[in-house]
Design goal:
about 200 residues, 11 strands, about 25% strand
């Protein structure tokens, strides 16, 4: 678990190399595998020293930076996916590493509504202070969310990942399910535990 956690951190620390990036404007484009190539080199880097997991995109072309920040839904950079959290009005104007699970994307951020299962765009977004930033770079202090398209509301919504949801995702992976159920119940919804066990089961890559 520690090995995976360190790998996750190092892959998200500020990066200086430029790589060709492609993006989807809408969730429907993402599901249909309809990508647009970003013009010019794009760099992903930490948006702050305190929160290494929150990323921002920068490009030598201002137009590209603006499009990616304001119009993109999902980025693909160096074969990894990054979700634009700006539309949620909850976690700030940043991108985060994400993993695809069917028609959904899994990502890790702070626990903003521990007593609620589902959170819509901007619903009950609890502002977090700068004092909490120090804990945001560590997966054990975060929880996971699933982002998905809601056809009724015609918007992307997110749901906090619960123990029951993880167990359902591990239904066809008895060994990992057993390992997960043996984990301390107080830690079963922590992002490092969830990401590690889903990665071990091959549910995410």
């Amino acid at each position: 678990m520690r090995k995976l956690f360190l790998f996750f951190i190092f892959t998200l620390l500020p990066l200086a190399a430029f790589s060709q990036t492609r993006f989807c404007v809408t969730w429907q484009d993402f599901l249909a595998n309809q990508w647009h190539d970003a013009e010019g080199g794009v760099e992903l880097q930490s948006s702050s020293k305190e929160d290494a997991l929150a990323l921002e995109v920068k490009s030598a072309k201002k137009k590209t930076s603006s499009i990616l920040r304001r119009q993109s839904c999902v980025l693909e950079w160096k074969d990894s996916l990054y979700l634009n959290l700006r539309p949620f009005n909850t976690f700030g104007d940043v991108f985060v590493r994400a993993w695809r699970i069917g028609d959904k994307l899994l990502f890790a951020r702070q626990d903003i509504a521990p007593s609620r299962f589902s959170i819509a765009n901007g619903d009950s977004g609890i502002p977090f202070s700068k004092k909490s930033f120090a804990s945001l770079s560590r997966l054990e202090n975060l929880v996971c969310y699933l982002a998905a398209w809601d056809p009724k509301r015609e918007e992307v919504r997110m749901a906090r990942v619960t123990t029951e949801m993880v167990q359902k995702l591990l239904t066809n992976h008895p060994q990992q399910l057993a390992d997960y159920q043996a984990t301390d119940k107080k830690r079963q919804e922590a992002a490092d535990i969830v990401i590690d066990i889903l990665h071990a089961a091959g549910v995410i890559h």
